[in-house]
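Researcher: Before we compare anything, I want clean individual predictions. No alignment, no superposition, just each chain on its own. First chain goes here; please echo the sequence and then give the structure tokens.
Model: Echoing the first chain and its structure:
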Amino acid sequence: MQLKIVLLAALSKGKPLLLCLWGLDKRLSAIGRNACAAIEMLEPQQRNMVKVFVHGWGFHEAPFLVEAIKYAHEGRTIDEAISACTKIADHHFCFSNFLTSATVKKLLKWRPGLFEQGFNVEDDSFIGFGIPVTIREEVLDEFERAGRLMNVQLKEKSMSALQDAEITRIKSDLKPNERITMILCNTVGRPDLGYQYITKMKVTIA
């Protein structure tokens, strides 16, 4: 019902609506399930104004929202925005995720299915999750994408060392003709660490 209220508020402007979701399968996320249920509660004419884009990359909505907003500002259609977002999700999207061992242990209890069986992490360590930073030819399905959200790339004893190691990995992943066109840095409670990381990337990856 809460999502229905949000949808009705957005639709009151008389314009079509685009929802960006991680996934629709409730085993991955209840958000997709609840969003679909809210859409079904709308009147038929209202439902026809709502389109859903499923990217499959966990809670990394930001790059797809940025792209969709850009297309909206340019006066492009929702279908054109979905096409552009799909291309990013299928071939261009990459991520790095830095977590403390304490946070990883909480996630392991909350969503054990995202980790390989027998996965464990040392206390007082810092873990870097991510996928290769390159243009992918292979298109991964929703569950394959979910399976790579907790793909461990690096383990270090400090956040600074983890940042340095991840930047080295990113630089080695990029092919000679590839460039990073956009970086979005989300931080929870420590924007200084995000600023530090981006500053290092600017210096190291030209």
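Researcher: Okay. Second chain, same rules.
Model: Second chain and its structure:
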Amino acid sequence: MRFMCLTVADTGMGMTPEVMARAFDPFFTTKPIGKGTGLGLSMIYGFASQSGGRVEIESAPGAGTKVHIWLPLYIGEKRPAAQGAARRRSPTEVDLSHLRLLLVEDDVTLRFTLEETLRDRGIHVETAATGSEAMALLADEDRRYDVLMTDVGLPGGVNGRQLADEARARKQHLSVLFMTGYAEQTVFSDQSFDESMQILFKPFTTEMLDEKLNRIVDYVNRRLNN
């Protein structure tokens, strides 16, 4: 099998052998508390492994770091477009315009992108960057939310699962949509969910997001009609 190698390099302080040995461990970080989750490299490792590839680190103290990401190379003919593909389908088959959603994501770019995507579907969206910010919004009795959409690896000492547990204790009918990377799946290893809770595994497409939203709105509609 042939592979393509993507290399990302910096000229920073580099890694000691001890740090390099743990670089892919979930939640391991050398940053101060609240400044990083330790999930970036572990998510890259998980993505590469699931794709049949691998990740290697080349580093030394004072000499910067190189991360080599090896991914299987596809050689073949371009797949023909499906018939009727020119006709664009609507983003979702379910009316989402009545949903009020709280989006919690610390990555600014991803938060903005998701907010715009959700608004395009007619959803009323409010955002927070940390679990603490989200809890302040949830504590406001004048605010009503149908869905909490939260990343699991949040900074500041409160992860997404802890936030969801606290939020549902305040608002029992709140539906939850978790966004989680490969490394964070251990947070849910011993958990079972009812249909009011859904999980999106990163990286995900808009089609995958729509599928989860459709499931949630179906649950919300049935709850409101009972």
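Researcher: What stands out in the second chain?
Model: The domain at 3-72 is CATH 3.30.565.10 (Heat Shock Protein 90). Additionally, Residues 206-225 form the longest helix (20 residues).
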